[in-house]
Specification:
alpha+beta, 6 strands, 49% strand, 6-stranded antiparallel beta sheet
């Protein structure tokens, strides 16, 4: 049986579906969810210009509101990714 292969960053899966990007391994205690809230134009490209970042408990039996450990909104994808990666690294160390 074929195993799902995902793009990885720093050894953890990075998966996009529509306007959502998930980072982390669901078998660990936490994952990060990035939701692209709006886009701006840069030439012909659509660039994310507002991104919601959530550090989530990976226990899917909990309600979504109970899974959110931290939340913030950033003005670009780079800043959102930087914050999310930092939150996840710290959460997994504790």
């Amino acid at each position: 049986m074929a195993e799902n292969k995902f793009l990885e960053y720093k050894g953890k899966p990075l998966v996009r579906k529509g306007n959502e990007i998930y980072y982390g391994d669901m078998s660990e205690s936490s994952v990060v969810r990035f939701e692209i809230l709006s886009y701006g134009k840069e030439g012909k490209l659509d660039i994310a210009n507002k991104v919601n970042v959530q550090l989530l408990d990976s226990n899917t039996d909990l309600d979504m509101k109970d899974r959110i450990k931290k939340e913030s909104t950033k003005d670009n994808l780079f800043d959102a990714l930087d914050l999310g990666f930092t939150w996840l690294e710290r959460a997994l160390k504790s």
